[in-house]
Specification:
The protein has about 100 residues and is mostly helical. The chain has 5 helices and no strands.
Length: about 100
């Protein structure tokens, strides 16, 4: 069942919400691949022989999905895309607040 989730096809996105959903599917595939790898480590020798290539297939799919996510999200939180005057949560502890004295 885990291997079915790992190797499930991802539908192409059709709009902005679809892109978000596709990225969530990618994260779920990475999570399922890591669970499959952990489950494989707990199997006995005979069962491991029955599900051969499970470890390499899970690793390959998780690596591909992670690379895809990283390339798609590279420009997502770009500092240059911040609007003038926009304050982010991380600014609260990284930068002191400055107020006009007027």
């Amino acid at each position: 069942a885990l291997l079915d989730r790992v190797s499930a096809p991802i539908p192409p996105p059709r709009n902005a919400a679809g892109v978000r959903d596709v990225n969530l599917i990618r994260v779920e595939k990475i999570r399922a691949a890591s669970r499959a790898m952990m489950a494989y480590l707990g199997l006995d020798v005979q069962t491991k022989a029955e599900v051969k290539n499970c470890l390499s297939r899970s690793h390959k799919i998780a690596s591909e999905e992670l690379k895809t996510l990283l390339t798609e999200m590279a420009g997502f939180a770009d500092e240059d895309s911040r609007k003038e005057g926009e304050v982010l949560l991380e600014d609260a502890w990284n930068k002191p607040l400055e107020y006009d004295a007027t």
